[in-house]
Amino acid sequence: MNAFQRVIFLAFATSISNAVFASGADDSSESNFIGAGGWLRPTYDGGNSHKIVAIPEIDYQHKQFFITTTQDIFEAGVKQTIFKGLTVGLQLANENGRDSNESTWLGSHNVTSLPSSVSWGGQMEFNNSIGPMPFWILARYRQNTNANFGAQEDLRISVGVYGGQRLQAGL
User: S-S: 143 plus which of 103, 105, 137, 151, CB 3.0-4.6 Å?
Assistant: First the structure.
């Protein structure tokens, strides 16, 4: 991520966090948390070598604003509820780079390292339940601000298998 991209990303994240934290009392129905986690990160997509890294876990949502981490990708943006359970939104995300020194295969094939960068895009999220079983579907499109890095689309589906007061588990 070059200096210009960092400034834009930090300005956006700062304005979002200022709006969120300055907006007054929280809605008690929102489940916000901050913590730490571990991620078994592949050295590159599709690679056989992995590295365990400590990652921040943030999920803060207040009204239309959100700040979150997903697999060590910091995201911030706005979203709007279209109808109960369905939201659409816009986001900025910090995309991690790739260090060729972390994989002998990448190094032996002279694959270059990639710097971190910023992406922007849209998302659609659907939360609902089938009886007592909650499920969540997320579809996203992100375009990297560095034209050489292209775009990403992803679809995620999570199904709950346990939900309690302080613990939730899912697939």
Answer: 151
